[in-house]
Amino acid sequence: MSTRPRSPAPSTPAPGKLPLPELIEMKRRGDKIAMVTAYDAPAALLADEAGVELILVGDTAAMVMLGHESTVPVTLDEMIFLTRAVTRSARRPLVVGDLPFGSYEISDEQAVASAIRLVKEGGADVVKLEGAGRMVSRVRAIAESNIGVMAHVGLTPQSATKLGGFRAQGRTAEAALKLRDDALALQDAGAFALVLEAVPAAVAARITEALAIPTIGIGAGADCDGQVLVWHDLLGMYSGRTPRFVKRYAQLSDEIGAALAEYVADVRSGAFPEEQHTYAIPDDELARFEDALSARQ
Ligand code: KIV
User: Fold this and answer.
1) Which residues contact 189 (CB under 8 A, 6 or more apart)?
2) What is the pLDDT of residues 216-259, one digit of tens each?
3) Which pTM value belongs to this model?
4) Rounded to whole angstroms, how far apart are CA atoms 94 and 193?
5) Which residue, among 275, 284, 37, 297, has the nearest Cα to 157 in the 3D structure?
6) Over the stretch 140-194, which tens digit does the pLDDT of each residue have?
7) For residues 193-226, b (16+ Cβ closer than 10 Å) or e, as one string?
8) 197 is catalytic
């Protein structure tokens, strides 16, 4: 793995990095965009090798990496630490640093300062935040500071309590219209893409049609311009509740559990380590060592 230092500046993308405008071109061509979350360097390398366009260092890290019950407790410092690990090994995909709860709600200035930290200290290529309403102005302020910003509406986990829990959004005509209006406002404010989470497929399709920027769906149907899944959900590595929109492509926690149990049994029985896992010392050196030990007794 290369340790080449990354350029922190959004204006000077690293060589080989997917250019941001390519996402709009993909939407125009009808090419689907693949995004996945990742929270460490080996995962980012695998995602890059698999060909994803976008890696999200999501605040879901709070739950799947840090053991919290919700995404709310994760701090900006923790998100920067995780983002830095991902950006060390992601080459082509754009790395999206997620702004955690409490790092952008107070003012546009706070939002810009937090976004700058994710880019400068974490090496994120772009950032993401949740919500519309007052958050439209945060999106505008970040975009005007020359940092690409992805918006996120529908089920916004940071405000799940206010939304009445982790439930689908936009299921009445009024709510669907409001979602569409929010999406247009976020696009006008300068968002380069929009995550639609837990939104009826037909509503997401209409919003996707209405926008020039790509929509990235998670529980929002097949007509979005791209899809995102959380690493641990996709790979079967999370033991908490999994939403219905998750498709599991592996059940790695079973494999990891079985491997660990075998390791523990091998240690206890002495089956590990074997000769092939140990280092040898030349016979003459061993003899001299033994002699030296005897001389000391
Ligand atoms: O934090 C995250 O992982 C997200 C995705 C669920 C889109 O926001």
Assistant:
1) 136, 137, 139, 140, 143
2) 999 999 999 999 999 999 999 988 788 899 999 999 999 999 99
3) 0.92
4) 12
5) 37
6) 999 999 999 999 999 998 988 888 788 899 999 999 999 999 999 999 999 999 9
7) bbbbbbbbeebbbbbbeebebbbbbbbbbeebbb
8) yes
Pocket of ligand 1 (CB under 6 A): 37, 56, 58-60, 98, 152, 195, 197, 218, 228, 230
Compute the distance from residue 37 Cα to the ligand 1 centre, in Å: 7
Q: What is the DSSP letter of 295?
A: H
Helices (H), 65-120: 76-89, 108-120
Residue 197: pLDDT band by 50, 70, 90 thresholds?
very high
Closest CA to 99 of 133, 64, 147: 147
Rounded CA Rg of the chain = 24
Residue 152 in 3-state DSSP?
strand
**Centroid of ligand 1 to alpha carbon of 107 (angstroms):** 22
What is the separation of C-alpha 161 from the centre of its chain, rounded to a whole number of angstroms?
Answer: 22
